[in-house]
Amino acid sequence: MNGIRFVFPLPSHLCSGYTHFIGSASCFWIDNPDEKGCPMPYAAEITRTNPTCFVFLVDQSSSMREPFGGQVEKQKAEGVADAINRLLQNLILKCAESDGIRDYFYVGVIGYVGSVVSALGGGLAGQTLVPISAIAGNPLRVEQRTRKLDDGAGGILEQKFKFPIWVESKANGRTPMCEAKKTAKPYLQVLLGRFASCHSPLVVNITDGMATDGDPRADAQALRELASNDGNAMLFNAHLSVTNALPIEFPSAEEHLPDNFAKLLFRMSSKLPPRLFASARAAKSPVQPEARGFVFNADLVSVIRFLDIGTRVAQIVR
Amino acid sequence: MARRISSPRWHAFHTHKRGNAPDEYEDAFAGDAGKARFAVADGASESSFVSMWAKLLTEGFVTAEGKPWRELDWLTPVRERWAAEVDPRSLPWYAEEKREEGAFATLLGIAFHKSKTNEGEFIWRAVAVGDSCLFRVRAGKLMKAFPLSHASDFGNQPPLLGSRGRSNDTPQTVERLVGKARAGDRFLLMTDALAEWMLRQTENQRRPADDIQRLLKQTKPHDAFAAWIEERRQRQGLRNDDATLVIVDL
Known about the structure:
Chain A has helices spanning about 10-15, 75-95, 130-135, 175-195, 215-225, 260-270, 275-280, 300-305; strands at about 50-60, 65-70, 70-75, 95, 100, 105-115, 115-120, 130, 140-150, 155-165, 200-205, 225-230, 230, 235-240, 250, 295. By secondary structure, chain A is an alpha/beta fold. Chain B has one domain: Phosphatase 2c, domain 1.
């Protein structure tokens, strides 16, 4: 495990009986979830006793100093920090109940900033995969921001809202995307070892696409080959580009993507599984069959909205 | 003024989602035999302070003055009560954000009156937002389902009533239905998982109302309900969710 510390404050009855899986790679079946008698892939319930995980790979390399989406005043690094903080906030809000946070998810945040490190700081510094309640309780700070809303009468309303920060805007060094993917693998393995029937874990890579340590496709493939009884792990990519091109969400083919980096990330992205696809359609997203978990100059917050943990409220998304 | 009927017999059963604690039950029900009004609600688990909202909604429908199945103006004082309970509390940042959005729930309410014209006949009026359902059963046979009528109609994003009373908190899709019934008819009010089961069983040529009747025949049906539900989760594909059943016999 290379000294990686995984935090799993689970009731002992949930851990016993699973310990023989820990640290073992041989318990993962690779190609065909049907062989395990799974009735439908990507349909496992997400509960506190059967949680799933999100591992975020956050590109903080020096190329992130470039402007984002043609905006001179905003660096890609700020776009990345906003994206990851917004994803974390939405995951937390999805799990927030009046009596606290329900741990439907475990979360890891890996930064590639010259080298590959956990990007969590403050009270979570040095920790890897932590329950979502630990993320909720340990932002670095909570900023007050303002958003503009339609006031319903043809005007614009300014609303203040809280924007917690877990990951700072950074731009340093090279882009070791391959190594980041290798680092994510044991995060998933620990979760899969403990919750063999969990909803397929999700790796979300937020980057400008320029790996400096080789072709990331093999490591991406290795991640996607990890599996629970529910199906293979998924890799989604959010591509933040210097190009001032229109945002693209969940394309099903690469021919309209603006550059080769986008095409490479598209090829590495998992297809939207059936239930996520159905949720996206129900939410009026214009996704087509074969749509992949890839967005260009857009964010992946909608993926969180589409995940099913119970009766959903359409309005709640930030 | 419609004529009141003599108090119908009613029973209510509920159990929580497997894996959740009993106090995390987020459905609600209410009934007033004297007023012959009954309601069930299902709180959306993604919103917060939701069991309170679901409870206030059902009680609000049952106790409201006037015709709560027709106009939804009775929601205003119910929303004020929810806010008065919730807004003064000191909460962490994430709970504050969720509270600001408000709580959301489905609602199914029904009221019965005697027919003015036909002796022995009843008029019922129902209002529904979302996928909590009403079934009229006669001699064990399902006669009417409202507002959904096929198992495939259920999704996980039903129309919902919001507690904040903002423009999108009262959905466009408020369903209303008026019908007739007679003595001996049974009405079943169910939240979504059980309602979906009811419709699927019917579509598969089973007689789920007879199944419910067998539950009622048990010596302690309320104690038996959780096990009865769990058996159907295991064997008949009843979705794991909070389950609420109100039975009204005319």
